[in-house]
Write a structure and sequence with these properties.
The structure is a homodimer.
Chain A (H helix, E strand, L loop, with lengths): L4 H10 L5 H12 L4 H8 L3 H22 L1 H22 L5 H21 L1
Helix pairs in contact in A: 1-2, 1-4, 2-3, 2-4, 3-4, 5-6
Chain lengths: 118, 118
């Protein structure tokens, strides 16, 4: 069973909608990078039990994203923030010191957008 | 029963997680601004039935936001986008024409952020 990087990202968005057991399994297996067997030991269930929990949780996380698309919306925010930051950096090369000051403020706000997005 | 503006906003985010009946009730009552009685007539259920559906849906929408907080995160994106736009507009007053060109690009990206947020 391959670990899927997307799952960690979707878990960050929708993890609170999973059941406590699902939440624990995904958290150990994906966020703490435990193996199936290690996760099983921590949770006191079988390796197959963990596998089932993880599979079901993955399907639910994808379903939430398919219904709500909020992760995709945030990803687009991050992309735009990156472009804004790059443009503001270019303005900082200007001889117009007031423009540079304003561009620095824009840069800081674009950085904040990244944080809000993450 | 007062209509609550927040519900329309939360419905835009989490509406797809409601049951089809709940979705229909909130859509008619909030988005189309039908009365309880009108909603009841369209749905072919009692006025009290609509009231119960709406109350339960409202509680669920608040619960989703409490768990996920995604509406709040998007609201902050919109706030930052507004500030970025205002700063870019100021840069457009500059004598440095290259800075102005870059600032116009930033403005367009900030506008796009609003759209992504909405």
């Amino acid at each position: 069973m391959d670990k899927n990087i997307e799952i960690s990202l979707l878990f960050d968005f929708y993890g609170q909608l999973l059941s406590p057991k699902q939440h624990e399994a995904i958290s150990l297996y994906y966020n703490d990078d435990y193996s199936l067997s290690e996760t099983a030991e921590v949770m006191g269930i079988t390796r197959q039990g963990v596998r089932d929990l993880v599979k079901r949780s993955e399907a639910e996380l994808y379903e939430y994203e398919e219904k709500l698309g909020l992760y995709k919306r945030f990803e687009q925010v991050g992309e735009s923030a990156g472009k804004i930051r790059a443009l503001a950096k270019e303005i900082c090369e200007s001889q117009d010191l007031q423009a540079v000051e304003l561009a620095k403020e824009i840069e800081a706000l674009a950085d904040k957008l990244y944080t809000e997005e993450a």
